[in-house]
Amino acid sequence: MPTRLSPHFSLEELTASQTAVREGIDNTPDAAARRNLARLAATLEDVRTLLGGVPIIISSGYRSPQLNRRVKGARNSAHMSGLAADFTAPAAGTVLQVARRIAAADIAFDQLIHEYGAWVHLGLAAAESPPRRETLSIFRGTGYLPGLHKAPPA
Ligand SMILES: [Zn+2]
């Protein structure tokens, strides 16, 4: 039985990692990260509702420090605190359309990033910090650009 964090999101889907399994990396969140994952799941419920109740497909949620290093995540990545998820929602539109709908809504994200034209990164602020509602885009070779942009032609 999966461990439900919210009606549509489980601890298992927010900690799953093919890289961790393949390389034997422990990706078990501690108690603080687990509490953050519950907050993250609640925000993902808001996103799901905003998008009309379509499935949200998580490609990366929690990352232990070792896993984050292995996947070359940012050094201070919110994924390591259980405060970020990468996802798509194909039934609600393209990655850019989904990101723009979230940015236009009243969702308390800290960072919303259109990454490589392929997924949305949604990060939350730590519990005691106000969310910045920062929007960014990153593509191959660009670094982080302010705002949500269309992917440049390949
Ligand atoms: Zn991410």
Question: TL;DR of this structure?
Answer:
This protein is 31% helix and 22% strand. By secondary structure, the protein is of the alpha+beta class. It has a single domain (4-146), classed as Muramoyl-pentapeptide Carboxypeptidase, domain 2, CATH 3.30.1380.10.
Looking at this protein, list some descriptive labels:
alpha+beta; globular; 5 helices; 22% strand; two-stranded antiparallel sheet; Muramoyl-pentapeptide Carboxypeptidase, domain 2
Are any ligands bound, and if so which?
Answer: zinc ion
> How many individual helices?
5
pLDDT < 50 stretches? none
Largest sheet: 6 strands, mixed
Q: What is the chain-wise order of helices and strands? A: EEHHHEHEHEEEE
What is the highest CATH level, the class? Alpha Beta
Query: What's the CATH architecture?
Result: 2-Layer Sandwich
Number of domains: 1
N-to-C CA distance: 42 Å
What does this protein look like?
- The longest helix is centred in the first third of the chain and has 20 residues.
- The chain has one domain: Muramoyl-pentapeptide Carboxypeptidase, domain 2 (2-Layer Sandwich), CATH 3.30.1380.10.
- The model has no long low-confidence stretch (mean pLDDT 96).
- The strands form 2 sheets. Strands 3-4-6-5-7-8 form a 6-stranded mixed β-sheet. A two-stranded antiparallel sheet has the order 1-2.
- It has 5 helices and 8 strands; from the N terminus they run E-E-H-H-H-E-H-E-H-E-E-E-E.
- The chain has 154 residues and is an alpha+beta fold.
- Bound molecules: zinc ion.
- The site of zinc ion has 5 residues, from strand 4.
- Zinc ion (ZN) binds next to strand 4.
